Amino acid sequence: AQLRYSVAEDREPGSSVGDLAKDLGVEVRSLATRNLRLVSEGEQRHFQVDLAAGVLLLDSRLDREALCGQSPTCSLHLQLVLENPLQLHRVEVDVLDVNDNAPQFPKPEVVLEITEVANPGTRLPLEVAEDPDMGSNSISTYELSPSKHFTLSINVRGDGVKMPEIVLEKPLDREKVAVHHLTLTALDGGNPVKSGTAKVTIHVLDANDNPPVCDPPISKVYLEENVPVGTLVTKLNVTDLDEGPNGDVEYSFKISNNSPGKFIKLFSLDPRTGEIRTKAPLDYEESSAYEIAVRARDKGSPAMEGHCHLRVELIDINDNSPEIVLTSLSSPVQEDATPGTVIALIGVKDSDSGDNGQVRLQIAKELPFKLVSSFKEHFSLVTNGPLDREKASGYNITVRAVDSGSPQRATQKTFYLRIADVNDNAPNFSSPFDTAHVQENSLPGTSVFSLSASDPDEGSNAKLTYSILDNGMQDVPISTYFRIDQDNGTVYTLRALDYEQDKVFQVPVEVKDAGSPALSSTAVVHVFVLDENDNAPTIVYPSVPKGSAFHQTIPPLAEPGYLVTKIVAVDADSGHNAWLSYQLQETAEALPFQVERRSGEIRVAQALRESEDPHRLVVEVRDNGTPSLSTSVVIVISPEENSVQDFAKSLELPESSPKDPNLTLYLIISLVSISLVSCVMFALVAARC
């Protein structure tokens, strides 16, 4: 917002200037919490804010004449800054003039000379009185004390200044009156009226009766501010009707308190030719116009003089580059800031005037920001789209200010805006499924697998912690089998694993960041237990107690190839570790029997003798593991008469024998294990595809 107040220059300190809270539409009690600050654009502080009442107070007595000099308007510019949200308001306070100064002449007594041959209508210029007040409080008119010979004439100069002149009404006679004493009074237009006086003494002289005359008496010249030193401004046109020394004119600058004489440092005057030239660089921004008073005096006796008034108005040239002022910057800014969030407050100034002082601000179009004009020469930099710290952690923002002059002048200012991280990215595993293998019977603490996750956030939002979830798929919680290092994601065993009990584990792992709120993701590690040859073969038929022998009878005249019996064995291991082979242990004498290596069938190898003694066979069953494990059974074969082999019964014996109830269970376990492993493998292949 932009507020405007006015205050008279004679107000006491502490006086109220305006109700800020009411005019801004802000509650008084929120001013302190929003950290209301008053920023003056000048070097001196004239105002203060009463946060309890929400009003703008006068901090010191104002002197309009000291603040603004002879400027027709006098304004003080302030800036109000509110936070949460950040706002900038402009306050303009007009200082109203009060008639607190009386007119005053440069000198209390003025001495003038006039020749007695002066014709009626001759004019005697007088010093202009000064009144620092402006407008109606400035000098309104002049009055001259009554006189038979002189009257007062008032002319208005180009800048509006009233110039008093004494005009001769009747011819003078020096022999009758040699000196005339008058009183000149300057009156202002204030209420009540104030005045100042000066004594005017006029000496009547003989001789030189024609003063130099400037044609025109008041003139105006336009000059560009960047002209070279030594440029001719003008040549005064002055004439004197007298001849000889009385008509020989010399020129000089006329300085008064009303014309402080700054122009003397900038302009030179040739005393003989009346040429006025520049002698120093001119700056429109320092002063846009100069009033030059020139005295033209002849060399008569007494000398007479005329006065020329020249107003030099400068034409502004685009010789000042814009100035960028970064009033406030909010850095860092959260990456989830909504579009329209104010990032910075930027002011711009250009000392030139007109189009040369009209400034435009620009930033690169590809940036997610835009400039919004708050009010004259003040802009807000706001977000114009979503921010993503993971794509850009900060921006170098270059603000370019270009004026409308010809040629254009530009300035740029670069500042860095940092983007603060928000926990908007969940941790991510490289794959939602992984496989690992571990040997059964491995020692507790064996490393199984290392998972790795990444999080594009930073700081605590990217600090990851790993943990194992219990999914209830095993009878015993998965956390009793495995543990995970919460920092690096390495999975370890907690106890030795048994392939025959559990062939595969599904280990769900969760990774969670330390953000607020925390984000997480999961992955499943399929841990396959590798079989180890840790189980010896078990003979399920014939089933005999340990240390005993199995007795089998055959006919005495059994022919070669006769099936004596069949050894049935199983191995709890799998794969090569469960491949079994059968063989007879070597003896001192050759036996008439042989055993099939793969089937375990014992058959007659050669014809038996009629009176054959019983034969003792030791059958060894060995698996294919490394190292190989084995077991053995002792079979005593006795030839007996009337012994008949029941082949059907022999073949069905392993399944129906009441002594071998575990055979079916072992076969079922093997079938289920193979099926389970196959299903898991098919599931993994499907997931990867």
From TrEMBL:
Transmembrane segments: 663-687
A GO CC term assigned to this protein in UniProt: plasma membrane
Subcellular location: Cell membrane
Predominant place of localization: membrane
InterPro entries: Cadherin-like_dom, Cadherin-like_sf, Cadherin_CS, Cadherin_N, Protocadherin/Cadherin-CA
UniProt topology in membrane: Single-pass type I membrane protein
Molecular function per GO: calcium ion binding
Family annotation (PANTHER family): CADHERIN-87A, PROTOCADHERIN GAMMA-C5
Lineage, uppermost ranks: Eukaryota, Metazoa, Chordata, Craniata, Vertebrata
Pfam families assigned: Cadherin, Cadherin_2
Source organism: Bucorvus abyssinicus (Northern ground-hornbill)
Domain Cadherin: 6-105, 106-214, 215-324, 325-429, 430-539, 546-656
Function: Potential calcium-dependent cell-adhesion protein. May be involved in the establishment and maintenance of specific neuronal connections in the brain.
Alphabetized UniProt keyword annotations: Calcium, Cell adhesion, Cell membrane, Glycoprotein, Membrane, Repeat, Signal, Transmembrane, Transmembrane helix
Protein name in UniProt: PCDGM protein
Record-level GO BP terms: homophilic cell adhesion via plasma membrane adhesion molecules
